[in-house]
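Shape is hard to put into words, and the shape of a protein is harder than most. The fold becomes a row of whole numbers, each drawn from a learned catalogue of backbone shapes. The outcome of that step, for a single protein, is printed below.
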Amino acid sequence: MTEQVSTSRCDSPLLQAFVDNRLILVKIAARITGCRSRAEDVVQDAFFRLQSAPQITSSFKAQLSYLFQIVRNLAIDHYRKQALEQKYSGTEEEGLNVVIHGASPETSHINFSTLEHIAVALT
């Protein structure tokens, strides 16, 4: 079966407001996260939240305000998560420059010999 792609207007006025203001939402999220691709992720998360949210029967201005608040809060959450990840993890290049204190020439030779013996035993 083939799925038909709907190009019509959204059912919910809130989702339609989301579609109409998507670029502005991405710009707002990008200002907070500092990265356009992360901002796209934030806006996508907001869309999924709005799809599962109950219908809001308030004014259009209140709905739009709610939409911008969701994107802002999600962007802040993503920024905090990114900051926490950077705090506890380093770059790959930093890991390559770590000195192994127990790797003396003798230890390296013993380890290499052991690996050779294992390779011979497996063949």
Summary: Residues 102 and 108 are 9 Å apart (CA to CA). The mean pLDDT is 83.
